[in-house]
Design a protein that fits this description.
single chain, seven-stranded parallel β-sheet, 7 helices, binds NADPH dihydro-nicotinamide-adenine-dinucleotide phosphate, binds ligand LZUJQKHR, DapB_N_CS
Length: 252
């Protein structure tokens, strides 16, 4: 039985995870953390500095401002942590990597199997098409999302950049420009509206033909399932930094 602490339990993803775990036999949520507390059917703490609880792993879908406090809690209690929160700064990514020398840390900007397969396909396509095709990434999300571009769009761009022999420049939205596109750019474009769960498209636009790889999340359950799976995986791991590649290496 994986005993989970859920950070951000009152949010959209927190609720999706609570529902998935309630139907899972080998996992349970022992308590939640959220900025204003709340009522979830398990204890919820807003100030958790001195909370003591028997747990195996933390799952975090909250806010970048929560990261430092949460990592301190995880390190102090020697707890593995799955971080799914996006919009982290470079310094915060470094904090995560430093923490992984003390506790097991899992990070992924997107917990779905489909997006992780899409990243692998995009890397392959970019390698084959390098030099003659322009790469543009378009993401669409609900109107409550606070970070742009999405963590997933950046992860796709980073994956593609890794597989190219010439380092690309990221161009965020295009406006007020009076010059043509540079060859070595990756364009990133964010759309926000309504209740869109999460859509990502990678365009490879070449001479007289366009290839498009796309993924559409149909509900938050795909992220919740992936996060619970990552938590079970991480609770058995030793100190280190883990990603979806480690989790899905046997699948894709
Ligand atoms: N990796 C992945 O697969 C996915 C990642 N995400 C990411 O997860 C995060 C959460 O998404 P979502 O559930 O939609 O967002 P929500 O805003 O619905 O949920 C976040 C929760 O965290 C709370 N919160 C805000 N600030 C803090 C803080 N400083 N300390 C503790 N808790 C805080 C919010 O409270 P309040 O509402 O009062 O502000 C809210 O209850 C985002 O970064 C999102 O991008 C989302 C989906 C998939
Ligand atoms: O905030 C969201 O909703 C999502 N955020 C993640 C991101 O920034 O990539 C993953 C998913 O697309 C939903």
């Amino acid at each position: 039985m994986a005993k989970i602490i859920l950070s951000g339990c009152m949010g959209r993803m927190g609720k999706a995870i609570s529902a998935i775990v309630a139907e899972t036999e080998d996992a349970e949520i022992v308590c939640g953390f959220d900025i204003a507390g709340g009522d979830c059917g398990y204890p919820v703490y807003s100030d958790y500095a001195s909370v003591s609880v028997d747990a195996d792993v933390i799952i975090d879908f909250s806010h970048p401002a929560n990261l430092n406090k949460l990592l301190s809690f995880a390190k102090r209690n020697d707890l593995p942590i799955v971080v799914a929160t996006t919009g982290l700064t470079e310094d915060q990514k470094k904090e995560l990597s430093d923490a992984s020398k003390i506790i097991p840390v899992f990070f992924s900007a997107n917990m779905s199997l489909g997006i992780n397969l899409l990243i692998r396909l995009a890397k392959q396509a970019a390698k084959i098409l390098e030099g003659s095709f322009d790469i543009e990434i378009i993401e669409k999300h609900h109107n409550k999302k606070i970070d742009a571009p999405s963590g997933t769009a950046l992860a796709i761009a980073d994956g593609i950049a890794e597989s190219l022999s010439n380092k690309p420049e990221y161009v965020y939205e295009r406006h007020s420009v009076r010059k043509p596109r540079e060859k070595q750019e990756i364009g990133l474009h964010a759309v926000r509206g309504g209740t869109i769960v999460g859509e990502h498209e990678v365009l490879f636009a070449g001479p007289d033909e366009v290839i498009s790889l796309s993924h559409s999340a149909q509900s938050r359950d795909v992220f919740a399932q992936g996060a619970v799976r990552a938590a079970k995986f991480l609770s058995k791991k030793s100190v280190g930094f883990y990603s979806m590649d480690d989790l899905f290496s046997d699948l894709v």
